[in-house]
Amino acid sequence: MNGLLALSRGIDAVNEKVGRIADWCVLLACLISAGNACFRYLFSLSSNSLLEIQWYLFGVTVLLGASYTLKMNEHVRVDLVYGSLSDRGRLWVDTLGLIIFLLPTTIFLTYLSWPFFLISYRQHEWSQNAGGLLVWPIKFVLPLGFFLLTVQGLSELIKRIAALTGALAIDTKYEKPLQ
After folding, report:
1. pTM (2 decimals)?
2. Which of 85-99, 118-132, 154-168 has the weakest average pLDDT?
3. Distance between terminal CA atoms of the chain?
4. CA 74: distance to chain centroid?
5. 3-class secondary structure, 167
6. HSE of 146, CA atoms in CB hemisphere, 13 A
7. How does residue 54 score in pLDDT terms, banded at 50, 70 and 90?
8. Residues 132-148: pLDDT tens digits?
9. Residue 124, Ramachandran bin (φ over 0: left; ψ between -120 and 50: alpha; else beta)
10. I need a labelling partner for 94 at 20 to 30 A (CA). Which of 34, 62, 119, 157 fits?
C-alpha cells in the first residue's frame, strides 16, 4: 500500500501544478477579453485570434482544472444522500463512483479524443476564421485533460481504498453548496 500511496502523492503533485496553470489561464483570459473589448470600443479594432485565444484559455481552464478540482474534493456531487452518510459510507460511495462512473468514462473519453487530436495535428489544422489560430494545440488539451482526470481518479481511488483499510486517514466531510 505504501508504494501506491507514493504514486498517489506523485499524481497529486502533478495535478497541483496543472491546477495552478489552469488558475493562471483564467486571469489571462480575463485580461485578453478586457483588452480586446477596449480595443474594439476605443479604436474599432478586433482580432479573431484574440477571441479564439480566449476560448482556448477557457478550454484549458476547464479541462486541466478538472483533475485539480477532483484532487481538492470540490467536484459536483449529488448530495441528497451523501451528506447524511457516515465517513465510511462516504468512502464507499466515492470508491464505487470512481470505479463505476469516473474511471470508465475518462478512459473512454481519452481513447476517443486522441484520434481527434492526431488527425488535426497531422493536417496541421488551422481555424477557418480569418486571422485564426492553430487548432491542434487546443485539441491536444482534450486527451490530456481526460488523461489527467483519469490518473487523478486513480489517485483518489488509492486514497479511498487506503482509508477503508485503515492505512490512511482522509477527511470525507462535505459541505453542501450555499445556493
Report:
1. 0.84
2. 118-132
3. 39
4. 12
5. coil
6. 18
7. confident
8. 777 888 999 999 999 99
9. left
10. 62
